[in-house]
């Protein structure tokens, strides 16, 4: 996969995200891993990602 083909890369990880070898913009969102946890955690993670997307879209759209 050639990362230079993308204008923006979003990584989603619980602790530290890997550093990608690209000059393109990389946004890292620290999100709790909900696997094996209750519905409340899944809802919290969903809401967090949803808010991050809304914020990113506002930023991109100017």
Work out the radius of gyration.
14 Å
Give the ordered list of helices and strands: EEH
CATH class category:
Alpha Beta
Distance between the termini: 29 Å
Number of strand segments: 2
How many domains make up the coordinates?
A: 1
Strand order of the largest sheet: 1-2
Point out poorly predicted stretches.
Answer: none
Fraction of residues in helix = 25-40%
How are the secondary structure elements laid out?
Elements lengths: L7 E6 L11 E6 L8 H23 L1
Can you walk through the features of this model?
- This protein has one helix and two strands; from the N terminus they run ββα.
- It is an alpha+beta fold and 62 residues long.
- The protein has a single domain, classed as 3-Layer(aba) Sandwich (Rossmann fold).
- The chain has a two-stranded parallel sheet.
- The N and C termini lie far apart (29 Å).
- The mean pLDDT is 89.
Overview in brief:
The chain is α+β, with helices and mostly antiparallel strands.
List the defining traits of the structure above.
62 residues; Rossmann fold; two-stranded parallel sheet; 37% helix; flat
